[in-house]
Design brief:
Largest sheet: 9 strands, mixed
Strand content: 15-25%
CATH topology of the domain at 8-179: Rossmann fold
Distance between the termini: 62 Å
Number of helices: 21
Oligomer: single chain
Structural class: alpha/beta
Strand order of the largest sheet: 2-1-11-10-12-13-14-15-16
CATH class of the domain at 8-179: Alpha Beta
Number of strands: 27
Helix content: 25-40%
Amino acid sequence: MLETPISVDTAGTLFGLLRERARRSPDKIAFREFDRAQRDWIGLSWRQILQRAEKLADVFSSLGLEPGDRVAILIGNSVDWVTFDMAAHKRGLPVVGLYASDTPANIAYVISDARPRVVLVETDAQWAEIEKHLPDRSFLTEVWIRNPGQRMQPLTRSPIALFSEVLKRDVPMHEDMMLDPAATAALVYTSGTTGNPKGAMLSHRAILANAEATREVVPPGLEDVFLSILPLTHAFERTLGYVLPVMTGSCVAYAQSLLRVRQDLATIRPTVIIAVPRLYESILVAARRESAASPLKSAMLERTAKIGWRRFAARAGVGPGPNVFERLIWPVLNGLVVRKVKKSFGGRLRIAVSGGAAIAREMGQDLVGLGVPLVEGYGLTEAGPVVSGSLLDDYLPGSVGYALPGISVKLSDASEILVRSPSLMSGYWEGLDQTAETIDADGWLATGDLGELRDDRLYVTGRLKNLLVMSNGENVNPEPIEAALDANSLFSATCVVGDGQSFLSAVVVLNREVWHDLAVDSRLDEKAPNASASADVIMDQIKGCLKHLPAHQQIRAYHADFEDWLPENGLVTPTLKVRRPQVLAHYQKEVAAIYGIDDARGTSAGTSR
């Protein structure tokens, strides 16, 4: 069922958007979440969400919070997250989202920088760890605990309260405020891959305008059901998985956890999902592992992906179609393979959005070929965040689509992507100099990303700061190399190194299950992936991934590990982007051993022969 979405002008502010949605469809289910006490999914209507937000807004006012005061939130995706967020918007309080997967020290850094008056956290133990890194807590009025433990008071020295009790406070109703749509609605801190995160100030109007523009790529309606997987702190999820559904009246269900996503897909049966490439990759890897036991099933899966992509490419005008034989066997493959893949996503998926990082071209083709209705977008926090997106019937893996309506994109002389848009941040929090370095006098945002424009399609080729300068003078962009390696299910994570060296090498994290199968088949010691015998096998895999690249972009050596790169160990950001300096520092001895520099005795690495 289609309905005219709520426009930016009608909404005015984010809270105005919620109020208008509740007026239009008060009793329609807005959000669903799993209630562990009831062991069942529960739903709340738009009217109920509005009432909760209005009550909590009065609590904020009773604490003396004034427009412009910040509040922070550190809980999982939930109705409470939305309630807190919308209540803050009603009182003109910029919301600082915090990543639960981040380290206590990093979270404390953001809190110290933003100085919120109120912080909502999941547990008292969580806050106690953060508090250790907060020498100054004078700006805090209260810390609200959502799920208290048994020793709450002794664990913390901050003024704390149970969130459940906060919601019951008897406070006077406060009059509505006339809020400026240009006022800051959210401080969204960047990932901080190369330094401390910075708080991008996004206004109500910027966020709403970006959601309105994304409707061209993701046109949902009243009957659509989103499954929310990415953290709402992420600007990408906030816009596409939260603000956009409010604008269009769609329902949002919150995934229980990353570990239960497949279960939630089967239960919720979403029509729209928004995820990073790793989720799609995990489903593809699982399908391949399941079929690997039977050579026939494995061959059918791969043949289906290839024929399916050719069928799509022919319809989209981006490639040749299948031959006569492939057209004849397609009905059988569609019934046996494609339907099974679609069922793994719930059976009624209409749009699968991939963002937050580039998806490997081959992986994108295989997913589309297997029936996944994939679209891909590009953006960054400072841009509000979405800049471009592909269309369902015009998706070309490797490209991030076309600039959204109202957004201009061009390339600098150095091929850096520049963006001008009504959704741009108004600046960095307390960072006038950094803002001036990022947005020029004509309103163009320097993204730091390298790109190409071909037939109006945008291609992101890497990060300007990540270029490796080889000792022979060659400039190498490591990201296409890493993308090609990441498309191989053997590698869970990769980081290409070689700055100042005569050849490239890579630090790779192996998928334990895939490596186990490969090691058994090759009669190798699976605990020794860097041994010379293993190196022959792993280098064959690497060479196979990179055979399309020129000689100076080939990997000649590697170091393999099984340790996952997680936000907790500081090797990736909360949005799973690789922190290159941290990875290089973590594997300093191993990389030194590859190049024969420093004192690296006792280390080992795989090399080609």
